[in-house]
Design goal:
single chain; alpha/beta; seven-stranded mixed sheet; two-stranded antiparallel sheet; 9 strands
């Protein structure tokens, strides 16, 4: 995409997604992965780089530090010990590869809507190639989609703003999950707690029962954890709880309100 094209795309209205997914890898993702993530953090771990302590429930890097988002995801997986894990919007596949390395007894898989993202993941992690599939989470749910114990996203839904697409994505994540859904997202980009409550109350979730919690990783990254069954954690009931202590972003909060207002439930 040309510089002018990028400028015009970024100046569009709030009800568009944040990126052109067809060119996302080339325009933004791969460049940021190399120039920012890999420079500042351990992106793709080697054997022995990561350890999980069952006593504290924490993940430690024995090499370079891992990003707090990835640490929180790996800590949730270590504490819950699901049989299988699926990442929606898996990007370059680093989170999946590191999870499989740290928890070899858990079956990891991933999906992404972008051919470019999947090609990058297969290039970076050839051993994952047969466990990656192309899937658009904003499409109607397909009976061909295989369920996993735990389904998670990492900075994916926060970029979806077209029409009611993020509602569809949330509903599909729950339908994909047998026990847990984990959302590692910017907490101000959507009214996640409000939207989740409305979707469940309106009958848009496959689960009859729903329990919502906030889980903070060791380095402070905040996640939303949905569980089919109750867990020994404090329930998360409002977006205010989730955003407590964060510096408000008026632009993001305005867009979140507009996105929520487009939903018609039940």
């Amino acid at each position: 995409m040309s510089i002018l094209g990028r400028f015009l795309y970024k100046s569009r209205k709030f009800y568009d997604d944040d990126f052109d997914w067809d060119s996302y890898t080339e325009d933004s993702y791969e460049r940021r992965l190399v120039s920012v993530v890999e420079r500042e953090n351990l992106a793709a771990a080697a054997p022995g780089d990561l350890t999980f302590d069952p006593a504290t429930g924490s993940v430690t890097s024995n090499s370079r530090p891992i990003h707090p988002n990835q640490q929180a995801i790996l800590e949730v997986i270590g504490r819950l010990r699901p049989r299988s894990v699926h990442e929606v919007g898996c990007g370059g596949g680093d989170h999946l590869a590191n999870g499989q390395l740290l928890y070899p007894d858990i079956a990891f898989s991933g999906s992404d809507r972008s051919d470019g993202q999947l090609a990058l993941a297969r290039k970076r992690h050839p051993t994952l190639a047969d466990r990656l599939v192309q899937r658009d989470l904003t499409m109607p749910f397909s009976r061909n989609w295989v369920q996993s114990d735990l389904v998670y996203s990492q900075t994916v839904l926060m970029h979806i703003h077209t029409a009611v697409s993020h509602f569809v994505a949330l509903s599909n994540m729950v339908a994909l999950a047998e026990r847990y859904v984990l959302l590692m997202e910017n907490q101000q980009c959507h009214n996640f707690v409000e939207d989740i409550g409305n979707l469940h109350a309106g009958g848009h979730f496959a689960w009859d029962s729903l329990h919502v919690y906030r889980f903070d990783g060791t380095d402070g990254a905040r996640t939303i954890l949905l569980s089919k069954n109750p867990l020994p954690m404090e329930p998360l009931t409002t977006d205010a709880q989730l955003r407590a202590g964060l510096k408000p972003s008026p632009r993001r909060l305005k867009r979140a309100r507009e996105d929520s207002a487009r939903g018609t439930f039940g």
